[in-house]
Write a structure and sequence with these properties.
Elements: H1 3-13, E1 21-26, E2 29-38, E3 43-49, E4 54-58, E5 63-70, E6 72-77, E7 80-85, E8 89-92, E9 98-102, E10 106-113
Antiparallel strand pairs: 1-2, 2-3, 3-10, 4-9, 5-8, 5-10, 6-7, 6-9
């Protein structure tokens, strides 16, 4: 099984808590992600984006892993551009400025450890 197939299997089989929707206002419209898990130890979300949508430069207090499982994107991490496509994995250290632009329709699995306050908790979903 390829890495991408493993990611898709994980996403299809993992239980979703509550209604699961998380809304982010980004350049180019809203992104409605799905919170898979969010507790004090870890936050896991899927983030589907339309081509052209952007997360503006931001930081997190925690480590972040981004796994692209569909599409192509341009990241700027600590001032350096990085092209990424489905199957790529990016790691971002705490407090590092980064941004994301969807070059095509895109799906990203975002993981922060420990959970970051910017990811809404289960009882804040959809707000």
């Amino acid at each position: 099984m390829t890495r991408l197939e493993k990611i898709n299997t994980f996403l299809k089989s993992y239980p979703i808590f509550g209604e699961g929707f998380v809304k982010y206002s980004v350049e180019g419209g809203n992104v409605y992600g799905t919170s898979i898990m969010n507790n004090e130890d870890i936050a896991v979300q899927t983030l589907p984006m339309k081509a052209g949508q952007c997360f503006k430069p931001h930081t997190h207090k925690t480590r972040e892993w981004l796994i692209l499982y569909y599409g192509e994107a341009l990241f700027v991490i600590d001032g350096k551009e990085r092209y990424a496509k489905a199957g790529d994995f990016l790691f971002i250290e705490p407090n590092i400025l980064h941004s994301l632009k969807a070059l095509t329709d895109l799906k990203v699995l975002a993981v922060t450890v420990p959970a970051d306050d910017c990811f809404p908790k289960d009882n804040q979903k959809g707000q």
